[in-house]
C-alpha cells in the first residue's frame, strides 16, 4: 500500500479525536536540530469542519483487536485497514514540519496484536524522532491502556503531552460499549503519568537540567451522548480528575453516529450544542472558580441549552446581583455573565486610573449585551428593563436566547 | 501644519521621536518620505536618522517605561497604519509621564488606539507563523511567499531562525517586495521582486500528501465552512498549499 493511501486511511481514522492543541510546552531547539515548541501553540490551518489543524494527527494503525461499539475502527467493521511503519511516520512528520505545515505530531493508535506491541511501535517513533532526527517540535502521544507502565513511562520522557482516552463517562457505559477495556487499565496510566509530571516538575525546580516529563500535561477525552450519563455526572467526573490526576484539561467529544448497534442511541446528528455547553461549564470549573455542584445537582442534572452555564447560574442566584462594577473583587467580577477572565482583569487595572462609567466599560469590551442586566456602574443600572428577579429569566430568554446563536467553540 | 519627515526606518522614526521631544515646536504629523505628499499648508522638517539619538530613545523606553511598551512601539510601527507615528508620539508622551502602568488605561483613547494597532500586528504575525508554507526549490532552499497586511517579516524571520535553524530558507513578502534570507547562520533583509521559482523533484509528492491529510482530517458531520473562514480568512488562501491545488 502506498504512503498516500495509508495517510488517507489513518488520518481519517484519527479525526474523531477532539484534541489538536499544541500549547503548554516551550521545548527549545538545539544546534543541529529541527523545531521548537511555542508556549501558546500555533494553528497551521483549519479544516472544513472549522477545527484547527496544528498537529499531524494520525493513528499508527487502525487494525484493532477491540470491538468498541461507538468506534469507527471496531474489529467487526468492514473497513480498509492499514499500519504505518515507524520510518513512515517519521518521514511525514519531518517533511511536513520543515514546510511549516504542522506544529508537530499527534500519534494515537488502535490496539494491534496487544497493548504492549502497539505501545512499543509508538515508543520507537518518538524515540527516533527525538534522538536520531533531533526533532524538537511538539509531540502529543496517546498512552495505550493496558500497556506495560515502563513503556508508557519511557514514552513520556519524549512527549510534550500524553493522554489516555477515558472513552465513556461511567464504568457501566464502558462495560456495555467497550467490553474489551477495563476502567483500571485507563486510570492506572493516568495516575502514573500524573504523578510523574509532579515529580519531574519538582525535580526541575531543584535542577534546571532535570529531564522533562510530559511538560504540556495530560488531556484525556471522553465521548458525550453515546451513553445516558447526565451532564452533572460528567462534570463531577472532570472535577475529580482535575483534582486528583493533575490534568491539563478534559476534551469532550460529541458522539458521532458512525456505527449501527443496538446498544447505541439512534441519533441523526452529533449533540454539538451539548458538547459546547460542557466546554463552557468545564471552563467555569478551571478558570472561574465554580464547582460542579454550583452549576448542577441531582434535581437539575443537565445543562440548560438556552442559556450558557454562567447565565443559567446567575439567573438562579439573583440575590447577589446587580453587582457594582467599581467595587467588586476579581472573583466576583468573574461570576457576572458576559465578563470573562480578560475583561475582569482589565476592569481591575482600569479602575486604578479612575472609577469607571458605562462608556469606559464599553471601551474595555466585556459582552455588555449580557452583562448589563447584572451590574451597576457608579450606582446606575443599565439593563433595558427594570431588575426584577421574577421576570428576568423570561425576558432574557426572549432577548439573549436569540443572540446567543450557537457557534462552535474553537479549540486551540 | 508642521510635518517631521523621516527615512521610513525604525531608527529614523525613533530619531524623529527624539527631535519631537526636544523641540519647542512639536510636529503635528510624523511621516516617512515615501508617504509624504506635500500640500499648501505644510511646513516640513527633515529628520536625519541618527544612531545615537535613536539608541537613547530605545533605551529610555525600555528602562524608564517598560520592555512591554518598547515592543508595543515596535509592533505599532510595523503596522504602517495611517498617522501611527504621531499617535505613538502622543502615547509616548503619556507613557513617560505615567510609566508602564499607562498600558492599563483601557479606557484612554490614545492607549486604546495604540493597543489595537499592536494587537493587529501581533495577531497577524501569530497567524502567519502557522500559515506560511515553504516549498523546496531545485537548489534545496525552502521558499515561503506571503502577502500580509502588516510589515511582519522581521518577526517571522526571528521565529523561523530559531525553529528551522538547519535549513536554508527565504521568506518573501510579495506585496512589499522584501525578503528575509537565511543561510543556517543568520538572516538578512533584502529587496526582492516576484520571480519564477523551480520546485524540487520531491516537492509535489509532499504537497500532495498534505492535501490528502487536509481533506481526510475534516469530519463531514460537523462541516462548518463559516468557522473555517472566520479562523483562516480568504485573503491568506492564495499561498496555502492545501487551499490552492
Automatic annotation (TrEMBL), chain A:
One of its GO terms (molecular function) is catalytic activity. The keyword Iron applies. Residues 58-192 form the Radical SAM core domain. The keyword S-adenosyl-L-methionine applies. CDD domains: Radical_SAM. InterPro entries: Aldolase_TIM (IPR013785), DNA_rSAM_put (IPR023874), Endo/Exo/Phosphatase_dom_1 (IPR051675), rSAM (IPR007197), rSAM_sf (IPR058240), RuvA_2-like (IPR010994). Gene3D superfamilies: Aldolase class I, Photosystem II 12 kDa extrinsic protein. It comes from the Bacteria. Pfam families: Radical_SAM. Keywords: Iron, Iron-sulfur, Metal-binding, S-adenosyl-L-methionine. SUPFAM superfamilies: Radical SAM enzymes, RuvA domain 2-like. This is DNA modification/repair radical SAM protein.
From TrEMBL, chain B:
Residues 84-242 form the DUF4130 domain. InterPro entries: DNA_repair_put, DUF4130. Pfam families: DUF4130. NCBIfam families: SAM_7_link_chp (TIGR03915). This is DNA metabolism protein. It comes from Halanaerobacter jeridensis.
